[in-house]
Amino acid sequence: MLRRHSLRGARLLAEFLGDRTNTQSATFLGCSTAHVRNLVGGAYRPGIDWAFRIEKLTDGAVPAGAWLENDLEEGSAAQAPTGVSSAA
């Protein structure tokens, strides 16, 4: 069974892709349908290259840094994982 993460990037990507099928999404992103399912489902985080590629393809709707942030319950702000400084 795949471990699920509550990643902000996964949520934003799912929202951006909207009603596209996995096949349409895979064509848009230039990857396999399995890769789309794993990204949107939060099964894993993309590598740095993929994160920036997704950011570019989505015109910034899915920022690369969103894959480092956990989504909290609705109404709460997203935060960086433990041990990652959010200070600039």
Core attributes:
single chain, 4 helices, globular, 88 residues, disordered C terminus, 434 Repressor (Amino-terminal Domain), mainly alpha
Would you mind describing this structure in some detail?
- By secondary structure, the chain is mainly α.
- The protein has a domain at 10-68: 434 Repressor (Amino-terminal Domain), CATH 1.10.260.
- It is 41% helix and 0% strand.
- It is built from four helices and no strands.
- The protein has helices at residues 8-17, 22-29, 33-40, 48-57.
- Helix 2 crosses helix 3.
- It is globular and about 30 Å long.
Overall mean pLDDT score? 81
Strand count, sense and barrel status of the largest sheet are: none
State the low-pLDDT regions, or none.
73-88
What's the CATH class label of the domain at 10-68? Mainly Alpha
**SSE order, as H and E?**
HHHH
Structural class: mainly alpha
Helical residue percent band: 40-55%
Count of DSSP strands: 0
Percentage of residues in strands: under 5%
In short:
With 88 residues, the protein is mainly alpha-helical.
Secondary structure elements and pairings:
Blueprint lengths: L7 H10 L4 H8 L3 H8 L7 H10 L31
